[in-house]
Amino acid sequence: MSGPTALYTNTNNETETKEFTVSKDVSNLSSDGTTTGPSPYLLESTNGEYIDKDKPAPLNLGNPMGVLRGQVTDLQDQINVFLTERIQQSKNGDVEEIDEDEDEEEEDNEDEE
């Protein structure tokens, strides 16, 4: 069974792409992503006493849906890290800015189809 994948394509530069895949090794999967949960700000403002009521239940790696859930969490972490790095690069002027008006027009065109 192959896992989920995602593909990022820069709308301003279609040659700039990044593919995200998950590992076939399911032993390291978790439902507790590294980029999810309470923010550092929230933890700091509550002196580390914040209780995460939305924390996901542990995975059941013995069934396909549990594995899929872990793979999607892994994929989400990879995407979040990549996009956060892109935002930081954009702030530093290291990447081409995304034209938000152009993105909105494309979304409107997709909705009309």
UniProtKB/TrEMBL annotation:
A GO term from the CC aspect: chromosome, telomeric region
Domain of life: Eukaryota
Keywords, alphabetical: Activator, Chromosome, Nucleus, Telomere, Transcription, Transcription regulation, tRNA processing
InterPro entries in UniProt: EKC/KEOPS_Gon7
Record's subcellular location: Chromosome, Telomere; Nucleus
Biological processes, Gene Ontology terms: tRNA processing
Pfam families xref list: Gon7
Biased composition regions of type Polar residues, renumbered to the chain: 24-45
Compositionally biased intervals (Acidic residues): 95-113
Region Disordered, residue ranges: 1-45, 85-113
Function according to Swiss-Prot or TrEMBL: Component of the EKC/KEOPS complex that is required for the formation of a threonylcarbamoyl group on adenosine at position 37 (t(6)A37) in tRNAs that read codons beginning with adenine. The complex is probably involved in the transfer of the threonylcarbamoyl moiety of threonylcarbamoyl-AMP (TC-AMP) to the N6 group of A37. GON7 likely plays a supporting role to the catalytic subunit KAE1 in the complex. The EKC/KEOPS complex also promotes both telomere uncapping and telomere elongation. The complex is required for efficient recruitment of transcriptional coactivators.
Similarity annotation: Belongs to the GON7 family.
Quaternary structure annotation from Swiss-Prot or TrEMBL: Component of the EKC/KEOPS complex composed of at least BUD32, CGI121, GON7, KAE1 and PCC1; the whole complex dimerizes.
Name the UniProt record assigns to this protein: EKC/KEOPS complex subunit GON7
Organism (species): Pichia kluyveri (Yeast)
Source taxonomy: Eukaryota, Fungi, Dikarya, Ascomycota, Saccharomycotina
